[in-house]
Design a protein that fits this description.
2 copies of one chain form a homodimer. With 156 residues, chain A is an alpha/beta fold. The two termini of chain A are 27 Å apart. Chain A has a 5-stranded parallel sheet. Chain A has a single domain, classed as SPOUT methyltransferase, trefoil knot domain (Alpha/beta knot).
């Protein structure tokens, strides 16, 4: 039975090609997961960065439920190889009564309050990526994790 | 005057959305760089992985010139933050009479002979990415590097 997996992303993706890549990987995940994707309105761009990040993180927090395992992307988070991530993901997915919930902030990242609530902070790379790209890499890595766990020929 | 930068990629990108993302970043780089992009034919998929990788790497090597600073993406390569990469890129770009040449292998990576000829092996992340995604991340990081060096507001 497909497991539930939840994503909380900040801001609608504007560029068509990013939307298409996101859709492509969501479709690839769909045989294994019931995906719940929540798009949070991004903070007003007239605000200072600090206020914008705080508001966006508050909005994310309102969508987090008590049974969510909250995994936030953060540049100070822990890095994994794809194989290590596959193991970690399995652990999260198989936690009884729990739902893995991945949150990706907006262009300026996430606020300390959200980091404190997180069960896990993870980083995709020491490099900084656009948040649209971070979303896509995350989806691809979840797909790759399933392929690794299934010993499928994708994971080269 | 725009500096020359060279890319050697293995295989045509098949999916339209990846092509579009690649085109988007190439356009963003065009004010600063004269881009030379060489697409190498990928090795026959009926070959064993070892042969395929060797053939692809030989084809890459044939396109490398003596004045190229050859930077190959490789999972065992050095990782940088975007800021560190910006500094490194500046050094490469400003080497007199030299051209930075970035090579990205096919799905199975690159052969030892190519690694040995490389001036630098770099890795984008401890995670493994599809090679189309690696190309795009590389282009985006070069664009980001220029923004960082110009103190432009992009690099959040």
């Amino acid at each position: 039975m497909p497991k539930k997996i939840k994503f909380i992303f900040v801001g609608k993706i504007k560029k068509r090609f990013w939307k298409e890549v996101e859709g492509f990987y969501e479709k690839r995940l769909s045989p294994w997961f019931v995906i719940q994707k929540i798009i949070i309105k991004d903070g007003d761009s007239s605000l200072c960065i600090e206020d914008r990040v705080r508001i966006e993180s508050d909005r994310i927090l309102k969508k987090v439920q008590s049974n969510d395992i909250l995994i936030c992307l953060d540049e100070m988070g822990k890095m994994f190889s794809s194989g290590q991530f596959a193991k970690k993901l399995t652990k999260w997915i198989e936690s009884p009564g729990k739902v893995p919930c991945f949150a990706v902030g907006g262009p300026y990242g996430i606020h300390d309050t959200l980091k404190k609530r997180s069960d896990f902070l993870m980083s995709l790379s020491p490099m900084t990526f656009p948040h649209e790209m971070a979303r896509i890499i995350l989806l691809e890595q979840i797909y790759r994790a399933k392929q690794i766990l299934n010993n499928a020929p994708y994971h080269h």
